[in-house]
Amino acid sequence: MNREIFIAGTPDDLAREAARRFVEAAADARAQHGRFSVALSGGTGPRKLFELLAVAPYCHAVDWQSVHVFFADERFVPHDNQDSNMLLASQTLLNHVSIPAANIHPMPFSLSGPEDCASHYTKTLQLFFGDSKPEFDLILLGMGPDGHTASLFPGRPDYDGWVAAVHESPKPPPTRLTLTLNLINQARRIIFLVSGADKENMVSRIFISGEAGEPLPAANVIARQGSTEWLVDRAAGASLIEAGILDDGGSI
Ligand code: 6PG
Question: What is the position in ligand 1's atom list of the atom closest to the CA of 144?
Fold first, then answer.
């Protein structure tokens, strides 16, 4: 299993480490195939990262013309709704950098319903990546205290296909769209941003007890051919530090 865990002191340290890795991933992808495809999530971790990427020195370190932004999940609300992940990304990052509008690929919201929008986003991915299964250069993920990630919640069956509609989400709002686990694990690089004491127990269950399986979607995210990097702040990683598995600033 190819997973790295990095303990980054405070949430601000974590955001700086994530920004450094984002810049590196963007440069690598551009050098390898001329463009950088990244899927964003919502939540507190991504928010801090986006705010940092929007300002110097990070905003000058990325060739935004070659960046293509997608979403790992989205709350099924209009894009101007305060709950929208697209709104979060726009207000904190996308409106502040020189990314072409055509390079931003939000998950759709339409009255035709979430299933229809999931199919529509699958077509968007097909158009961009071609017929082969999408391999994102980078997927950014958060994790909830219950082990959910993107909008993959514990106890739900595996979804088929690339994009799924999710109903009755335990985290509001109740209706969402998400990339499937199968597609996420196809990425070249996956970075988790996990901060806060409410995540400590779940970090311990995943990395000390070694739990996986259906109840813990985050534990099942492992890039099949790429790297899976967990950036965890001191509060979320306290049990790893106590168990002597990792020091502050350490990584395995
Ligand atoms: C969303 C998500 C979700 C989120 C986690 C962690 O709700 O839009 O993408 O998976 O990343 O719930 O959120 P926090 O970092 O706010 O705890």
Answer: 12
pTM: 0.96
What CA–CA distance (Å, rounded) separates 22 from 187?
Answer: 14
Grade residue 209 by pLDDT with cuts at 50, 70 and 90.
Answer: confident
Closest of 225, 119, 213, 229 to residue 158, by C-alpha: 213
List pLDDT tens digits, range 129-144: 997 889 999 999 999 9
Taking Cα atoms as reference points, which of 13, 17, 15, 97 lies closest to residue 61? Answer: 97
Closest atom of ligand 1 to 171 CA is 7
- Pull the structure tokens for residue 173: 């709002």
| CB-neighbour burial class of residue 120 (10 A; exposed 0-12, middle 13-18, buried 19+) | middle
Q: What is the 3-state secondary structure (H, E, C) of 3-29?
A: EEEEECCCHHHHHHHHHHHHHHHHHHH
Count CB-CB contacts under 10 A for residue 133.
12
How many Cβ atoms sit within 10 Å of the Cβ of residue 103? Answer: 18
11: Cβ below 6 Å to ligand 1? Answer: no
Residue type, 119: S
